[in-house]
């Protein structure tokens, strides 16, 4: 009995010592948003309304003058690991434009293909693809939910409901984001367009959202001076990246300088592709994010967006 009492007392003392040691202030993890090395990373930390709780790393690389990519790892203010990817595309550059992609570059409905293959199908001299992301939500047969324009041709002019939005490049090469009710205003001027869903920003204001779900996501925003930002966040992988909420994407878009922004298709569709080789050799496109389906395997999607140069 005495031995057990001594043993129990020793365990209690050891537990108290361990608890005291683990709770010393100097042993606590210190969180900091300091240290971002890139201009885009610094903008996100400074201007996203407290979204970033802990900064880990950020890297920027230039694909061509006017096209910059950011890869950034953070812990959100709610304690979630997030890996995000950002494209900055300056459409004021005369060599750059954005195009709506399609499976096999055929411009047909009711068909699907992985974004790497859609980029390869379009890629050619005089229209070289620099980057690609997934586009609209779609039905199981590959029919997109929203409007769809390629090369000035309307492939689909209907939307499933009034939640639908769209991203378009006009015939004058102006990037615009519109809602269901704004389609008639722009329809005669659209050169390229894909549909989206939830509106994240309007006229510089981040919109309140009812859904707080964390998911892999793709979003697109435009600025007053014709710069396009595309944001992809990986998700559904706790230790690597948990995804983003609509409101969080809106906050990041505002920090980057967007005036209007919408959510594109997400989940296993979210894909962030860059050109890793200048020429037209095999393997010239690299998937930089981690598509959720089947542990990183691209999902076949109905359409997407390509960043294209005529150089």
List the helices and strands and how they pair.
Layout lengths: L1 H21 L16 H9 L4 E13 L2 E10 L4 E10 L5 E6 L13 H8 L5 E7 L13 E3 L2 E4 L8 E6 L4 E5 L3 H4 L3 E7 L2 E4 L2 E2 L10 E6 L4 E7 L12 H11 L3 E4 L8 E4 L9 E3 L16 E6 L2
Antiparallel strand pairs: 1-2, 2-3, 3-14, 4-18, 5-16, 5-18, 6-7, 6-10, 8-9, 8-10, 11-12, 11-15, 13-14, 13-15, 16-17
Cα shape: globular
The largest beta-sheet arranges its strands as: 1-2-3-14-13-15-11-12
Number of helical elements: 5
Structural class: alpha+beta
Helical percentage: 10-25%
Number of strands: 18
Largest pleated sheet: 8 strands, antiparallel
Which parts are unreliable, with pLDDT below 50 for 5 consecutive residues or more?
A: 2-7, 9-23
The overall number of domains is: 1
The helix-strand sequence is HHEEEEHEEEEEHEEEEEHEEEE
Strand content: 25-35%
Overall average pLDDT:
93
First CA to last CA: what distance?
A: 86 Å
Question: What radius of gyration results from the CA coordinates?
Answer: 23 Å
């Amino acid at each position: 009995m005495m031995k057990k009492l001594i043993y129990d007392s020793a365990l209690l003392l050891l537990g108290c010592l361990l608890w005291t040691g683990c709770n010393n202030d100097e042993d606590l993890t210190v969180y900091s948003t300091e240290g971002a090395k890139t201009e885009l990373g610094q903008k996100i930390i400074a201007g996203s309304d407290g979204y970033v709780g802990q900064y880990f790393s950020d890297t920027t690389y230039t694909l061509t003058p006017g096209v910059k990519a950011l890869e950034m790892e953070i812990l959100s203010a709610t304690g979630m690991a997030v890996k995000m990817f950002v494209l900055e595309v300056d459409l004021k550059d005369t060599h750059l434009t954005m195009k709506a992609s399609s499976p096999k570059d055929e411009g047909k409905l009711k068909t699907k293909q992985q974004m790497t293959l859609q980029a390869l199908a379009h890629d050619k001299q005089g229209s070289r693809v620099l980057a690609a992301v997934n586009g609209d939500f779609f039905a199981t047969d590959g029919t997109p939910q929203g409007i769809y324009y390629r090369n000035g041709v309307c492939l689909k002019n209907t939307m499933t409901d009034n939640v639908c939005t769209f991203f378009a490049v006009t015939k004058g090469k102006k990037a615009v984001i519109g809602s269901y009710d704004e389609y008639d205003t722009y329809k005669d001027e659209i050169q390229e367009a894909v549909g989206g869903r939830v509106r994240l920003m309007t006229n510089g204001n981040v919109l309140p959202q009812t859904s707080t779900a964390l998911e892999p996501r793709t979003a697109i925003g435009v600025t007053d001076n014709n710069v396009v930002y595309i944001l992809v966040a990986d998700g559904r992988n706790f230790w690597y990246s948990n995804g983003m909420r609509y409101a969080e994407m809106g906050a990041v878009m505002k920090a980057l300088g967007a005036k209007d922004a919408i959510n594109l298709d997400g989940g296993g569709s979210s894909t962030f592709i860059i050109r890793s080789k200048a020429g037209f050799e095999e393997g010239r496109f690299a998937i930089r994010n981690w598509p959720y389906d089947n542990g990183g395997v691209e999902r076949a999607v109905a359409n997407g967006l390509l960043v294209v140069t005529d150089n």
